[in-house]
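Hi U.,

Before I forget, here's the chain from the pilot set. I'm dumping it here mostly so it's searchable later in email.
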Amino acid sequence: MSSRHYSRHLVLEKGESHLLLGARGTGKSTLVNSQIPQDKTFSIDLLKPSEEDRLSQDPELLIRLVKQLPPAVTHVFIDEIQKVPSLLDVVHHLIEKTNRKFILTGSSARKLKRGSANLLAGRALAQFLFPLTSFELGEDFDLKKALSYGTLPKVWASSSERSQRKFLETYALIYLKEEVQLEQIVRVIDPFRKFLFVAAQVNGKPLNFDAIARDVGVDGKTVKNYFQILEDTLLGFFLEAFDTSVRKRLRKAPKFFFFDVGVARALARQLTVPLSPGSYAWGDAFEHFLLTEMKRLSAYSGNQFEFSYIRSERDVEIDVICERPGQTQLMIEIKSTTKITAEDTKSLSTLGREISPKAELVVFSNDPIEQKLGGVLCLPWQEGLARFFTGPDISDFRAPPR
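Structure:
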C-alpha cells in the first residue's frame, strides 16, 4: 500500500488570502504546508492550548506579533481558526492594513459564523477541502477499500486494515470530545452520542425526525438541531427532495449523508462487518461514495451545481438530480452492479421523462461497457465522473482504475 503524499485538486493562489474549511483529518494543514513557502510563513497552531489561551485572552496580540515580523515573511498561517473566532475581525483589519497574506483553516463553520458576522467579508477566498477523491488517489484507488474505510488521507497512509479501523474509531471519539463537548455545542453529550449512532444507521435514507427523536430520547426539534450541528461542523450534508416548487421541496423529507463513507461506518459501528459486492450494504456504500465524489469534484471544478433526489408517490426514486446553471438537468441513477440491463434503466427513463423531458438521463455503475438503453446513457462510474463533474484542472489527474 502506498503512503505517499497525494497531490490535491485544490491549489491555493499565492497572491490571495484564504479561508480553508474542511472536516478534521481532510489534510488542511498538510495542504497549506505543501503549497505555501515555509521559510516565508509565520504559523500559529490554535490546537495548542497555550496558543489558544493567550490569543483568546488578547486577540489584538496578533496585530503586535505581525508588526514584529521581518519583511521577508509574506504569509501568516492560523490553523483551526474556529478555536478563537474573535481573531477573524483582527485578521480582517490586518488584511486591509498590511501586504501580508493570511491562510486560515477551520473545521467548524458554526463557530466561525457566531464569532464574526462577515466571515472576512470577501477579503479571503473561502474554499473547502474534502477527503481524497478517486482521481487524487489515481492508480492507488481501490473501490472495496474506499467503500469499507472511506478516503481520509490517514486511512490511505495506514499500513493495515486494523490501523485503518482504529483511526476511524478514534476519529469519532475525537469529534465528540473536541468539536462537541469542549466547544459546548451541546449541553448534554449522551443523547448526542446516541444520536450519532442512529444518524449513521439512517445515512442516505429519507429522514423521519420524530422517529429518530424517539430512538434518541429527545424531541424532534432537538434532532433537527443535532443534524444542523453535523452540517455546521462539516461532518455531513443534506440532500433535499426535489420539487419544481421550492415550498413543496422544503416540506419533503431530506436525506442526510456523512462527509465520508468510512466515518459513517465507524459511527454506525460497522467497520468490522465485511462489505460484499452485490450485498445491500455494498450498494448503499457505493451510492454514498459516488454522491460524495460528485459533490467534491463539482466544488473543486467551481461548478455551481445543486444536488437533490426524488421519490415519486409510487416509491420510484432517482438517486441524484443535478441542476446545472445554463444546462439541462442531469438525472443520475447509481447501480453497483457489474452488468447493466434495460430493466435497470426503466424507472429512470419513465420518471425522468415525466419530470423533465429534456433532462440528460444517466446510469453510473460498475459495468465497464458504455451503452445506451431506452434513451438512458449507461457509463462506468469513473467515466461518468470524468465526463460530467471534472473541470480542466481535475481532468489532468489520472482517472481511477476500472
